[in-house]
Structure formats: C-alpha cells, structure tokens
Amino acid sequence: MKTLFDKIWDAHVVSAVKDGPTQLYIDRHFCHEVTSPQAFNGLRARGLKVFRPEKTTLTADHNTPTIDQDQPVKDPISKNQLDTFAKNAAEFNLPLFFPLGHIKNGVVHIIGPENGFTHPGATIVCGDSHTSTHGAFGAIAFGIGTSEVEMVLATQCILQSRPKTMRITFNGKLGKGVTAKDLALYMISKLTTGGATGYFVEYAGEAIRNLSMEERMTVCNLSIEMGARGGMIAPDQTTFDYVKGREFAPKGEEWEKSLAYWKTLKTDEGAKFDKEITFDAADIQPMITYGTNPGMGMGITESIPTLSEVDEAGRISFQKSMEYMGFQPGDKLEGKSIDYVFLGSCTNGRIEDFRAFTAYVKGKKKADNVVAWLVPGSWMVEKQIREEGLLDILTEAGFALRQPGCSACLAMNDDKVPAGKYAVSTSNRNFEGRQGPGARTILAGPLVAAAAAITGKITDPRA
Ligand SMILES: CC(C)[C@H](C(=O)O)[C@@H](O)C(=O)O
Ligand code: SF4
C-alpha cells in the first residue's frame, strides 16, 4: 500500500544510499532569471553542457515591467538580469526560452501548466519556492536552490532526502463566495507558517475534488507558506481534461499510454501518512490576513486576536506586526479603507481569477481612492481576458489591464506599493516590505480583492 507521493517518488529513484539522500530523476525543470545566473556560471566554470536541453523551460517573470514591454527595460538591474538570462539560454542552446513579449511568456508557475509542460506523475523542480503549484496535477513538484539548479541542468537529477508525508482532508463543500484562496489561507491560519515543515502534503476530500485545476493550483501554490516541501492532489478527470490537447502534453498513442498510468496515481486505501489533518469546508469564510506572515489570517467578519489570545512566545512579534500594519489587537478590519488592489501572481493570476474578479465588478465602478493593478499571470491569460470580453467589462468598471509578470507580488519591478499604504493583494506573502518598503499587505482571494476595489474598503464579497 502506497501513498500517491510514494508511487511517484519510487518511480523516479535513480540510486539510493542507505540513510543518505536519494538521486531522483527530474522530468521537468523550470527556470527564471533570478535564480539561474549563478547556476549557468557554475556550468561554464566547469566546462559542462546542459544534459537534456529540452527538459528545461525558461521564462522571464520577476524583473519584468508590466507596462511598455516592447520598449527597452529602463531599470539597469532588471535589464542586466534579463539580458544575462537570454545570453545563457542562447549559449547553452536551450530551445524552450520564452523571453519578455513572447506569447508563452509569463509567471513560471502559470506558463508551465497552461502550455502542457506540467503532467501528473512527473517530478518537477524550479529555483523558486512556489514550484509547489504544479503538485495540483498529481506531480512531485518542489523549489530548489541555485546550486541544485546547476545540478539539474548538468545531470537532470537531484539529490534529495525523502520528506515525511501528511494528508490534509477537507470534508464537505465550500460555501458560496468562498474561494480556493480562502481555503488555503484558512488552513495556514490553523497550521501556522511552520505547521507543515518537513512534510510533503497531499490534499484530499470532497471540497478538494470539487475544485477546478486553477483552484487546485492556488491551494498547492500556498503549501510552501505553511512550511511544506510541496503539496499535491491526485489526478482525476478534471486534471486529464485540463492537460489534454495542450501544446506540450503527450499526444496520440503516447497520450493513451500516459493516461492509463496517470489513472493509477492515487493513494491506496489504507496507506499510511506520517500525519493526518481534517477540516470541514463549511467552516471557511472569505479570509483576509491582518499581520506580516501568511499564517496571520482570519475570516473577513472576525477580529484580530487580542494580546491575551496570542501565545506568550509570539507576543513580541505579534505586536511588531501590529505596529507595521497600523492595526490594534482586537480590531475588526471589515469596513477599513484600503489604497491598492493587486490581482495577479502565481497564486491568483490565472484566467479563472480574472473571471471571478470581473463577474463581481460587472456593472459597478472602481472606487476613486483605489489604485488597482490587474496583472495577468501570462500572455495567454491576457489574450483570453480579451477574447472572453472580460477586458470590456473591466474597462467599463474603470479598470485597466497591465502586462504579465510577477509584478507587485514581490515588487522587483516598478510596481511598488508606497510606504504606509494598504494593499489588498491576491498574492501569497505579506512579509514586511514584500510589496515595497513600508507597504502593508492584506492577502485575500480574488472576490475579496474585487469587493475592496469597488468599495475602497475591506468588504465581504458575499454581502
Ligand atoms: C525570487 C525567488 C527566489 C522567490 C521564491 O523562491 O519564492 C520569489 O519567487 C518569491 O516568491 O519570493
Ligand atoms: S508571482 Fe510572486 S510568488 Fe509567484 S514566482 Fe513570482 S514572485 Fe514568486
């Protein structure tokens, strides 16, 4: 009896040392401009080639501007980063390179699945913590460091020690107006940011099975924010329907063979996990964060904990985060004015997020006091937004669309929230300074973001 994780892991072991790390074969390697330069330098220094060039997909996303992408990049650091990336892709003959402006360009964890690079049963790595996103397809997907990027480029393998396994089951159904992001923020608020450290998580249960692929990606994306090595969901018809026909998905006979194998990828009845946790989906309401880590979340109608409700050991950092956010313990945040709204990132920058946001703002008007950055996760998402007529509805409601990239998720470009300003953000991290020095981030799902953009305040989208 094996778990889903065990089945995929065991199928990729090249060699194993007793009590040591395992040499694991990697099916797909994703690469972006921030964590790859030193890896390529390492290869150059040792005179090594890339072992399997067609197994690495490269896209520029972190340092990219979200306006005027057809113009030369103005910021010299970003320009250097992007030029180096292009030089490396050319020098090492990497055919799957999607630079700025390319139709396949976008945030790495968005372009992978939408182009069919991400498959069930695969091992997937990238020098990026949110690689966990790809686990939504029933893959073992995790972030790696730059020296490991070099290892994968040179050998298509990686040395890894086997993580412990955890299953998190969500019974029942999500309420109306409650999104996958709310489910994930709820889970992290219960488990805390360290609650899954050392584990690889499988998500299960009725509420998970009912999620679309985009929603499953949102949940797996956030696994890392509770410390997990990765998160995964067993593939099913929803998964197969999503993958089928995508450009880099298996085709013809290869598809039939893959499908037959993918259908075996589920945890066997009675297989043991190192830890099991169960939640009831009906307990979840739209979520917001109030502090400076993703675990500091609460239902939108709830109040920030009072000092006495916080563990003594955590009080100093709790107070520090209250000062940074400009909140008081015990505050209710519903109705509080905000300044910025960011819809985007590898957490919520997919087409369904834009559909949800647009459906909410349709026929309404953006609040005058809000600056709204709507940043599609990729050019394919951007194209779809236009084709489906969403852009017309957004424009009518007073919104504009920017060009794809990580953008204000980590503000490595010009999309920085000014110090002291409040941003309701669909991204994944609310750390101090994450969206710009002094910026105050309130994490939420696309519906809460839409409601805030319309009222200029923290607003329950169900109201
Ligand atoms: C730049 C990169 C290393 C980083 C990560 O690994 O997560 C970034 O994507 C982030 O979200 O903070
Ligand atoms: S969108 Fe944000 S979380 Fe995702 S890869 Fe880019 S910076 Fe990291």
Automatic annotation (TrEMBL):
Domain of life of the source: Bacteria
Catalytic activity, as annotated: (2R,3S)-3-isopropylmalate = (2S)-2-isopropylmalate
E.C. number: 4.2.1.33
Sections of the chain in a coiled coil: none
Keywords, sorted A to Z: 4Fe-4S, Amino-acid biosynthesis, Branched-chain amino acid biosynthesis, Iron, Iron-sulfur, Leucine biosynthesis, Lyase, Metal-binding
UniProt entry tagged with the keyword RNA-binding: no
Domain annotation Aconitase/3-isopropylmalate dehydratase large subunit alpha/beta/alpha: ranges: 6-456
Keyword Nucleotide-binding: no
Pfam entry (one): Aconitase
Cofactor: [4Fe-4S] cluster
Pathway: Amino-acid biosynthesis; L-leucine biosynthesis; L-leucine from 3-methyl-2-oxobutanoate: step 2/4
Any one GO molecular function term: 3-isopropylmalate dehydratase activity
InterPro entries xref list: 3-IsopropMal_deHydase_lsu, Acnase/IPM_dHydase_lsu_aba_1/3, Acoase/IPM_deHydtase_lsu_aba, Aconitase_4Fe-4S_BS, Aconitase_4Fe-4S_dom, IPM_dehydratase_rel_enz, IPMI_cat
GO process annotations (BP): L-leucine biosynthetic process
NCBIfam families listed in its UniProt record: leuC, PRK05478.1, PRK12466.1
Function: Catalyzes the isomerization between 2-isopropylmalate and 3-isopropylmalate, via the formation of 2-isopropylmaleate.
Protein name: 3-isopropylmalate dehydratase
